[in-house]
Amino acid sequence: MPLASVVLPIFGNATSGGTLPTAYLPDWLHPVSEILPVGVGVRALQGLSHFDNDGLATGIAVLTAWTLAAAAALYWRDTHIPRRNAAVG
Fold first, then answer.
1. CA torsion, points 56, 11, 74, 55, in degrees to nearest 10?
2. Is residue 25 a contact partner of residue 33, using CB atoms and an 8 Å limit?
3. Helix, strand, coil percentages for the chain (3-state, nearest 5)
4. CA 83, 84, 89: angle at the middle one, nearest 5?
5. Contact (Cβ atoms closer than 8 angstroms) between residue 61 and residue 33
6. Who's near 78: CB < 8 A, 6+ residues apart?
7. Taking the alpha carbons of 34, 36, 41, 46 in that order, is the dihedral positive or negative?
8. Is the sign of the CA dihedral 53, 39, 24, 20 positive or negative?
9. What is the tens place of the pLDDT at every residue in 50-68?
10. Which is nearest to 22 in space by CA: 3, 43, 4, 52?
11. What is the C-alpha to C-alpha distance for residues 55 and 48, in angstroms, rounded to an integer?
12. If residue 35 lies in a helix (H) or strand (E), which one and from where to where?
């Protein structure tokens, strides 16, 4: 959780293309912006509103993959890691 709370907002917002187009990003950040949910979501909304749905299918696919991966990780954690019983007082 701490790693995700640092990586996703910092890299996600910086590479989203919401404030500056992704063409202004360094070359090494282009692949990152293609897989993080913030950048994909911004490009999907821009494509939906201005560019004849360009990038919408990719956005839906990537966001669905993130959702399924998170759900799978939570399911795995709930089924494989025993819960500690909290003392009720």
1. 10
2. yes
3. 70, 0, 30
4. 135
5. no
6. none
7. negative
8. positive
9. 778 777 888 888 889 989 9
10. 43
11. 8
12. helix 30-35
SS3 assignment, position 2: helix
Contact of 39 with 33, CB cutoff 8 Å: yes
Beta-carbon contacts of residue 46 (< 8 Å; ≥ 6 apart): 17, 55
The whole model's pTM is what? 0.62
Domain range summary for the chain, segments of one domain joined by +:
2-80
Distance between CA atoms of residues 58 and 55, nearest Å: 5
Residue 84's region, left for phi above 0, alpha for psi from -120 to 50, else beta, is beta
| Between 57 and 4, the higher pLDDT residue | 57
